[in-house]
Amino acid sequence: MSLNIDQDRLLSDIETLSSFSEADPPAVTRIVFTPADLKARAWMKTRCEEAGLTVRHDAVGNTFARWNGSDPAAPVVGTGSHIDAIPNAGKYDGVVGVLGGLEAIRTLRQSGFRPEHSIELLIFTSEEPTRFGIGCIGSRLLSGTMSPDAARKLTDNDGATLDEVRHRACFGGELEQVKLPTGYYKAFIELHIEQGPLLGRQKIPLGIVTKIAAPASLRVLIEGSGGHAGGVLMPDRRDALCAAAELILAIESAARGSGAIDTVATVGICDVFPGAVNSIPSRVRLSVDIRDTDLQRRDVVMRALESTSAAVAAKRQVSIQTELLNADAPADCAPAIIDALSQSCRQLNLNFLSMVSRAYHDSLFIARISPVAMLFIPCRNGYSHRPDEYAHPDDIARGTLVLAETLAALAG
Ligand code: GLV
Ligand code: MN
Ligand code: MN
Question: Are 309 and 218 in contact (CB under 8 A)?
Fold first, then answer.
């Protein structure tokens, strides 16, 4: 099939979507169900309808834009990603998979291709964990990985429940309805920026993902004793921030010492109370994010966190409580879709790298109910989750072309 991706239309869509943001450009901040996210969703819906797709959403706001195949009862060939963005992010994470997916479908429609299987673009709700503390809420519910009861217990940073927040955003209905029926998908492909440096360093234009790493995240609450920064003598201190510092370095050292480059650990939030220059920190909250492609190796780091917490708590006379938010298994991509993507690359004479994804994606959860694969394009210096995240237009168009060819091959 000879397809022409409309690169200008795709880039202009990426620019427009980046304007729905709470941050000054080039930064993008688009937290789920905030006004910026709702405006972006409304614009996406119009864009999908203009492309001739039928749009529906479920109770948690996952949005499906469908191109009916000649056999509407046949399992769906899906593609998509997310449009929410963490604070101070860039404009490509998730967006390339959503707008690239839409462009792939528009291109196929314009080429005269008629699919047998319906092709659906899926925009997942809250891939990012910013608001509710846990990522991939939409795909966890779609795949049955998170129960509706567990979802109802989620609260945002201001204490509002997921139900309150989604109802305010006009997403009604029962969360029980979100889970997709078994066999819904024939295949699901997510196009995404690599969010790492390997493709760029090796000057390879595409990555075909074979495995998605297993993420875990925890909250840690450290309570010591506050007081006057001048008056309290050093031997009498129970400084919560000093305890946190020891813990943070121990987490880093456990990840570095795993023996594998795929083990990564990050403390991304450190909230210090009361946060005054002349007051001893009495309370610290940490967020901990630990990932690995190998579950056992990741869990060694989690156990190191537990044992160091106990040791630091005893030594410094502070209390340390850890709350596990999620500890997910890794996912393998489906050989048949990997083959289909590889075949498209070969037909287009494009070199590709087989690689793992150390970032998590909604595909990690969709993999539990469907064969999935992911296609990566390079991003400059591997930068992501920062305003200078950048993907070259040629790379975006190339990824979109391979996606379109593969969707066509799978949808028949
Ligand atoms: C997704 O944004 C991740 O943190 O991997
Ligand atoms: Mn992200
Ligand atoms: Mn993403």
Answer: no
